[in-house]
Amino acid sequence: MTKQKIAFFWFRRDLRLDDNFGLFNALHSDFPVIPLFIFDEDILDNLPKNDARVSFIYDSLEKINTQLKEINSSLLIKKGKPLEIWKTLLEEYDIQKVFFNKDYEPFAIKRDLAVIELLKQNNIEALSFKDHVVFEEKEITKSDGLPYTVYTPYKNKWLEKYHFKGVEEYQTETLFSNFAKNDFKFPKLSEIGFERSEIKVLPHNLSQISHYKETRDFPALDSTSYLSPHLRFGTVSIRKLVNWANKKNQTFLSELIWREFFIQILFSFPKVINHNFKSNYDGIQWRNNEDDFKRWCEGKTGYPMVDAGMRQLNKTGYMHNRVRMVVASFLCKHLLINWQWGEAYFAEKLLDFELASNVGNWQWAAGTGCDAAPYFRVFNPEIQQKKFDEKGEYIRKWIPEFDLGYNEPMVEHAFARDRAIATYKAGIIK
Fold it and tell me: Which residues form the Photolyase/cryptochrome alpha/beta domain (predicted)?
């Protein structure tokens, strides 16, 4: 019996049907489209069985599958190593084309190149598309073609190009009839090897963004958008979001551009995953005291702003951005613990963990990254608390024992500041 000629669309970090550019192109092909998601064992094997991000991915896929069932289609879910999964699919289907959206992280690039080579060996065309960002790879460069390593000129060039070209949104829903008709079994979360987490990804909320500039630094106001996990996993379209932000709030738009700046840095300088962007900082002698690190992780440093942030992270998977800067600076400067320790802990806990932004922001806080805070800038957690949580509302939410007599600081600020500056000075390679 002759197999039906079909195309595949491979979902990854783009978990939506709406305004999905790779899917839009797949549905424009000459073949019925089977939508696919692979739970990648190379990633899953390193995660706890109740990882909240896996629960969120599962729920997002279930929403997609529900939409597809309304048009007599469904989502094919596989679990395993992607290359092996594709080898199996090649045997089962007469695949003509495979569509997917690009991922810019080194691990993903390596994975995709292997799959593309496999498809090529089988005379199957693989087509990849830009969907995760507005401008990718080498679209925003200096006049000499080199990547920007300072944010402000990158932002200015980004905005110049955006306002000149605009960014189109894609009406995928008009093409839904081109999905292949099928009824694949949607697995239970337990069949994938996971259990539901008590930590939840919250719905995003753009209602307060008009006041973003005035309110964004005050964690007690809870006025942030909660968009970051949705951007991370692509349940919202960056094109729609940027077009909306451009009309509503330029400060919010600037934060979206920071995200693309760090993605461009990671793509252009993949060494930043494990090494300082500024290699002359490689000589810093970190203390890396494990007991100090444990107290930081548990939110028991004696500095209320730091401790509240870490407890919020541990309990919810979220941390307010202003507080992230304070806790990161404290770890690197007050405790002289290598930023990589903090980056790894955030990677484990943050619902919105994205490699480019996590590495970029940690190196910014440590002073070792591109366009980073200078090494002699050491946040005073007590001053930060007075400026941004003067009444202690945020602190009391996460430290209920605060008014009963709080712990003494584990290290005195003036001493820690002087020690950090001296250590950096001694370690910076001229």
Answer: 5-134
